[in-house]
Design goal:
The complex is a heterodimer of chains A (about 230) and B (about 210). Chain A has one domain: Lipoprotein localisation LolA/LolB/LppX (outer membrane lipoprotein receptor (LolB), chain A), CATH 2.50.20.10. In chain A, about 20% of the residues lie in helices and about 50% in strands. Chain B is an alpha+beta fold. About 5% of the residues of chain B have low confidence. Classes of the chains: A alpha+beta (about 230), B alpha+beta (about 210). Chains A and B meet through strand 1, strand 2 and strand 3 of A and helix 1, strand 1, strand 2, strand 3 and strand 4 of B.
């Protein structure tokens, strides 16, 4: 009895600590027959040219919520992004250059720089949403169940799943679960912007690092200016 | 940073300040603005905010509302592209995102950025004009409608602020536009419109 009570308490405590997943948006079923390469080709990070993205965001990290407006230049070909964010007074919060494996801090507001690992958390978020991980065509396993595509693969940091839904099939959710990382990104309300289909509503939650990023993509257009 | 916050909070309150005694064209203009603004107890205005980012050669747009009530109440509310804002009331403040009913209180003394906003707000409300002149070289670009150019003196601006441009409405009773130019080419342009003066402002705004 004592063990049962202890077990129930432990279960309740664990349930209380576990954060519920962000529900993906209900989308119509996808048509069958799409290949992994076709699905990968629908991703915004597959666009080889540079894209200018305007967005609003709310970043909650270590108990601090930072609302911001941001502009980002995404270079899918070179897998890097430059992100500048400002607050409600137009004061620049940070200017970061992010690649697969590197972060350059061009500017970070001193007040934010005092939050431990703030820039790294922003950079990690940008990577997960816009740079990596990406499906590995030919390596990741592709399933089509209940009108939804799932690509499942192994990465160094754990097991990653990409869910595609709707017609045409668009990325609805990415999940990473491993010893080193556990996070979920949900992409909703796709809209045709200048640079293809982009999700208007994006949420990323990292249970390990303890942050939540809520993003609204307002504008995305290809740019032809020299780099 | 301090200077940028000062620059952003100063413009709407400029007419409240007292002029210097030197009888120059600038002083005459400031004196005129002071007289026009002497009876200003409240300000309410919509604004359009544009942040030019030199690295992208592109503009981030925003919209919002501004409210001020003597002696120490201020509300800055951004409505686009994100709903967020803050209120300063004496030594207290609260801020919110999305919905104001979920605002969180903060003590200004514990928030460095907000503390600077509050300090500067009070400084201008107290018509500390010598302080302004100790921090900026002010020049008159145009007498009517008044346009001022403020260049931070040595040691001011933290190597960050380049200059400010302040444009008054034809009536001279309120600021129409402010531009905060930073070193490196970024600037913030805030254009105030639908400005109402001495309109009764509900307590719930603050």
């Amino acid at each position: 009895m004592k063990n049962l009570a202890a077990g129930l308490c432990a279960a309740l405590i664990l349930a209380g600590c576990a954060t519920p997943r962000i529900p993906p948006a209900p989308v119509p079923p996808s048509p069958p027959g799409w290949t992994a390469a076709q699905l990968d080709g629908m991703l915004w990070m597959s666009v080889p040219k540079r894209v200018r993205v305007k967005q609003s965001a709310c970043f909650t990290f270590r108990g601090r919520t930072v609302p911001m407006a941001a502009m980002m230049e995404l270079n899918g070909g070179q897998r890097r992004a430059r992100l500048v964010a400002v607050n409600e007074l137009g004061i620049k919060l940070f200017d970061l250059e992010i690649s697969d494996s590197a972060l350059v801090e061009h500017f970070v507001l001193p007040e934010l720089a005092r939050i431990p690992r703030f820039s790294e958390a922003v950079a990690t978020s940008v990577r997960r949403l816009f740079l990596a991980p990406r499906p590995r065509v030919g390596d990741d396993r592709l399933d089509f169940v209940n009108g939804r595509y799932r690509m499942l693969g192994k990465r160094l940091s754990g097991e990653v799943e990409f869910f595609f839904g709707g017609d045409p099939p668009l990325l609805a959710e990415t999940r990473m679960d491993g010893e080193g990382e556990r996070w979920q990104a949900v992409f909703r309300d796709y809209r045709m912007l200048g640079a293809g289909f982009w999700p208007y509503d994006v949420r990323l939650r990292d249970d390990r690092a303890g942050y939540l990023l809520e993003l609204r993509i307002l504008e995305a257009r290809g740019i032809d200016e020299p780099d | 940073m301090k200077s940028l916050l000062l620059a952003l909070t100063l413009p709407m309150l400029l007419p409240i300040m007292a002029p210097a005694a030197t009888p120059t064209a600038l002083d005459e203009v400031l004196s005129g603005l002071e007289k026009l603004a002497a009876e200003v107890e409240t300000l309410a205005s919509d604004f359009r905010q544009e942040k030019y980012l030199a690295v992208f050669r592109d503009m981030l747009p925003g919209e919002g509302r501004f409210y001020y009530r003597r002696p120490d109440r201020m509300r800055w509310e951004l409505t686009q592209p994100i709903a967020t804002g803050f209120v300063l009331a004496g030594d207290r403040g609260r801020r919110w995102k999305d919905k104001e009913d979920k605002s969180e209180a903060f003590e200004i003394g514990r928030e460095p950025v907000m503390k600077i906003v509050a300090e500067q707000l009070l400084a201008w409300t107290r018509a500390d004009f010598p302080r302004l002149r100790s921090q900026y070289e002010i020049s008159l670009v145009k007498a009517s409608p008044a346009e001022l150019r403020l260049v931070p003196k040595k040691g001011m601006g933290d190597g960050f602020l380049d200059y400010l441009l302040i444009f008054f409405a034809p009536s001279g009773r309120h600021v129409r536009q402010v531009e905060v130019h930073e070193q490196g080419g970024d600037y913030t342009r805030i254009t105030f419109f639908h400005t109402r003066i001495n309109e009764a402002l509900s307590d719930h705004l603050f």
